[in-house]
Amino acid sequence: MAKYNRVKSTNDIELKDRLVAINRVTKVTKGGRAFTFAAIVVVGNENGVIGYGLGKANEVQAAIAKGVEAAKKNLIQVPVHKGTIPHEQEAKFGGSRVILKPASHGTGVKAGGAMRAVLESVGVTDVLAKSKGSSNPHNLVKATIEALAELRSPMEVAHNRGISLSQVFNG
What we know:
- By secondary structure, the protein is of the alpha+beta class.
- Helix content is 29%, strand content 35%.
- It has five helices and eight strands; from the N terminus they run E-E-E-H-E-E-E-E-H-E-H-H-H.
- The protein has helices at 60-72, 113-122, 137-149, 154-161, 165-170, and strands at residues 16-29, 32-44, 49-57, 76-77, 89-93, 96-102, 109-110, 127-133.
- The strands form two sheets. Strands 1-2-3-4 form a four-stranded antiparallel β-sheet. Strands 5-6-8-7 form a four-stranded mixed β-sheet.
């Protein structure tokens, strides 16, 4: 994720965390079974900043707290244009494949489980999303953030093509 628009400072950003999935992991030892918890957490400011993290601990609350701290360390900036994404985007991570399409105002977030948490945390209010392949929450979150990180803003496209912003939308 080093090549994307990373957020430098988190001091002035108010982040909200969402628990995507919690997994109880069992390790069989000589003395019996040892239970630990793994939590995948998404943090975002609902205005274009998003990050995810994985926390592992002996208690659920400690795992969530570790996940939040890890998520704050890898925040990226995502272009959100009028409550939706600027263009269609596909991404793949592991066995999970995601497709994101912009939607008109009033459509809502048409996405399931893990993808919904990511899209709502980043501040997208209208989007059509589809996941194919594995429904593993870890890979779905990573694939969704990969797709969001590859989005380009209309201003960036206009600058790269050397045309005005109105020409990007009209032609």
